[in-house]
Amino acid sequence: MKKVIPAVFVFIFATAFAIQQQPAGLKAAIARGKTVYENACLACHQQDGSGVPNMNPPLAKTKWVLGDKKALTKIILKGLQGGEIEIDGDTFHNPMPPQESVLNDQEIADVLTYVRNSFGNKASMVTMAEVKALRAKLK
Ligand code: HEC
């Protein structure tokens, strides 16, 4: 018992520290993004982000999901077609539908923050300001 109590305190402090390290609003953005994902992405990319072979690519640890946020946001705004994505030798022949007239800036920021922090991914959040700026630039 004597050794267990200090260990419990260390765990509580470590957890509190880890939570404090997250940027403000990350948890809330992930929760909102999950709902957007379920409505706008899940049908193709699946609940666990594993995709469908030959049709829809997976979202786990891909260079698009974890890489440059602008390139990633552009895929969501403008969509993709023609099997441009190749992952482990597989290409995907469904079209990725553009979301620019379906989702607003906040929804795109939230869903990308969710995707970048789910399915084994861990990456910085995407903010509404970043989506807004890119949307204006791509007009
Ligand atoms: C109709 C099916 C469909 C829907 C709905 C859809 N996608 Fe896609 N997505 C695709 C396909 C197909 C590709 C690959 C297109 C290509 O290779 O030309 C793709 C590519 C991607 C990529 C880049 C490749 C990768 O796997 O990393 C990301 C990221 C992505 N989609 C995220 C999303 C998000 C987030 C949503 C919801 C807002 C969404 N998709 C909705 C079918 C879909």
How would you describe this protein?
This protein is mainly alpha-helical and 139 residues long. The protein has one domain: Cytochrome c-like domain (Cytochrome Bc1 Complex, Chain D, domain 2, Orthogonal Bundle). The protein is built from seven helices and two strands; from the N terminus they run H-H-H-H-H-E-E-H-H. The chain has helices at residues 4-21, 26-40, 42-45, 63-66, 69-78, 105-115, 128-137; strands at residues 86-87, 90-91. Strands 1-2 form a two-stranded antiparallel ribbon. Strand 1 and strand 2 (90-91) form a beta hairpin. Helix 2 crosses helix 6 (105-115), helix 5 crosses helix 7 (128-137) and helix 6 (105-115) crosses helix 7. The longest helix is centred in the N-terminal third of the chain and has 18 residues, at 4-21. It is globular and about 65 Å long. The model has no long low-confidence stretch (mean pLDDT 92). Bound molecules: heme C. Heme C (HEC) is lined by residues 40-41, 43-45, 56-59, 62, 64-65, 72, 75-76, 80-85, 92, 94, 96-97, 99, 111, 115. Residues 28-119 form the Cytochrome c domain.
